[in-house]
Design goal:
This protein has 465 residues and is an alpha/beta fold. Helix content is 18%, strand content 29%. The structure holds uridine-diphosphate-N-acetylglucosamine and calcium ion (CA). Uridine-diphosphate-N-acetylglucosamine (UD1) binds at residues 9-12, 52, 74, 77-80, 82-83, 102-104, 143-144, 157, 159, 173-176, 202-204, 230, 232.
Length: 465
């Protein structure tokens, strides 16, 4: 959009978070907090977006590396007014409207910002030099209060710590989102002082500067205070997470996904799920995960950065990470799929089976108590209970290869590197250390002895002695 730029304030430490991590990098539904206002802004296509960084600036810049934004540095945090002064440097010569918002308002939407810009640029009324979004709060403490004169015009914003007893009672508060004419902003920002409770340059003082000089100030009151809430502590962070989660769940439900108990379901905004999939309570689906249609994701499953094909069932309490699974797989209950698991259509992984960096072909099964690591397994293979790929010799990892339709008996150890040919059989309890040709049987078993009456004899010895 022409004659429209934005400054996003993200230089502060966020002291009230009590954290080593800068506030704007705390995750909200799987993405750093700062990601959300930047996304909302991008829907308005500003000419320029300047992010003001300071505290842990390398980390904050790193988190925004893929975004089309430029950065301004505020070396020491001397207040929001000073932060904007720094943010104006890269905007030298810019004419038009500057939207200012904080990196700590993750719930803001593009729709609200669009409506705000339209409001600020509305025709007819005298064009304001500053507009701000306000909200009504039953408990306004912590926020700057919006002071209006007898005619209802906004004349000032007074910070919580600077309020007198009467001002404390004002329920209308400043959201910290402003649209300011660029020329007025560059002149006005230099007039800010630090005579206040925190000894900082307060950006909201721009309101009284505009009002006093007879310029127009206009205020748009947002009806959903949650959307413009600033996140200052971890209680508010939890609220933001809950709201964001609900938005994602609502979107998924409206697109045909069943969520049995939305209050107890944790799905990141980055997740995509197909129609008629059912998500049971206690499920966590995070990161870049795609789940096909007609799947069932049972209670307590955790799925991260994975692809699950359609018509699959993830049974209760399975933990799945960086895995690719085809159609109609059945996983769990209590299965663990670690990075690099690649399962073809119809694969079955049962309880207490761990799979790491392994490929399993169509219809292969490992139904009970197994460790499969660094293996390439063909199709139609049956892996018996208690099978272990011994992939590590203490120095390096080695590969196990199992051909199509091979049958691995229970309690087998496959000492890698080793290969079991197509259609071969491994007898129960075998330790396989050499390659098995296709169609062969391999078995290592000590002779079985049965000594009749052994227990009675033992008892007799004991009673004599
Ligand atoms: C601010 C407003 C307050 C408003 C509230 C809405 C001021 C002085 N007060 O208060 O009127 O009701 O937001 O949420 O502006 N920042 C910097 N550099 C600094 C200081 C802050 O970049 O020197 C950044 C922070 O990283 C943050 C944003 O500015 O993203 C807001 O700062 P914060 O300390 O959270 O302001 P509030 O006390 O919430
Ligand atoms: Ca804040």
């Amino acid at each position: 959009m022409k004659n429209f730029a934005a400054i996003v304030l993200a230089a502060g430490k966020g002291t009230r978070m009590k954290s080593a991590l800068p506030k704007v990098l705390h995750p909200v539904a799987g993405a750093p907090m700062i990601d959300y206002p930047i996304s909302a802004l991008s829907s308005l296509a500003p000419e320029r977006v300047v992010v003001v960084v300071g505290y842990c600036r390398d980390e904050v810049q790193g988190a925004l590396a893929s975004r089309r934004v430029s950065f301004a540095v505020q070396a020491s945090q001397r207040g929001t007014g000073h932060a904007v002064l720094c943010g104006l440097n890269p905007l030298a010569g810019f004419k038009g409207d500057v939207l200012i918002l904080s990196g700590d308002v993750p719930l803001i939407t593009g729709a609200t910002l669009k409506a705000f810009l339209k409001f600020h640029r509305r025709r007819g009324a005298k064009r304001p030099v500053v507009s701000l979004i306000t909200m009504m709060l039953a408990n306004p403490s912590g926020y700057g209060r919006v002071v209006r004169n007898e005619d209802g015009a906004v004349v000032a914003v007074v910070e919580d710590k600077d309020c007198d007893v009467e001002q404390k009672k004002i329920n209308e508060v400043n959201s910290g989102i402003y649209l300011v004419d660029a020329d007025f902003l560059s002149a006005g920002i230099k007039k800010l002082g630090t005579k206040n409770a925190q000894g900082e340059y307060y950006l909201p003082d721009l309101i009284s500067i505009a009002a006093r000089s007879g310029h127009g100030v206009s205020a748009l009151t947002h009806l959903d205070p949650q959307e413009v809430m600033g996140i200052n502590n971890r209680v508010e962070l939890a609220t933001a997470n809950r709201v964001m989660r609900m938005r994602t769940l609502n979107r998924l439900m409206l697109s045909g996904v069943s969520v049995v108990d939305p209050e107890a379901t944790y799905i990141d905004s980055t997740v995509k799920i197909g129609m008629d999939t059912v998500i049971h309570p206690g499920v966590h689906i995070t990161g870049k995960t795609f789940i096909g249609s007609r799947c069932s994701i049972e209670a307590g499953a955790m799925i991260h950065d994975s692809i699950i094909g359609e018509a699959s069932t993830i049974k209760a309490y399975s933990v799945i990470e960086s895995t690719k699974a085809g159609k109609a797989v059945v996983i769990g209950p209590f299965a663990r799929l670690r990075p690099g698991a690649r399962l073809s259509e119809g694969v079955r992984i049962g309880n207490f089976v761990e799979v790491k960096k392994s490929v399993m072909g169509k219809g292969s099964k490992a139904n009970h108590l197994s460790y499969i690591g660094d293996a390439v397994i063909g199709s139609g293979v049956n892996i018996g209970a208690g099978t272990i790929t011994c992939n590590y010799d203490g120095v390096s990892k080695h590969l196990t290869r199992i051909g199509d339709r091979a049958f691995i008996g229970s309690d087998t150890q496959l000492v890698a590197p080793v290969k079991v040919g197509k259609g071969a059989y491994v007898g129960s309890g075998t330790t396989v250390t050499r390659n098995v040709p296709p169609g062969a049987l391999v078995i290592t078993r000590a002779d079985e002895r049965v000594i009749e009456g052994w227990a009675d004899k033992k008892m007799m010895k004991k009673s004599k002695g």
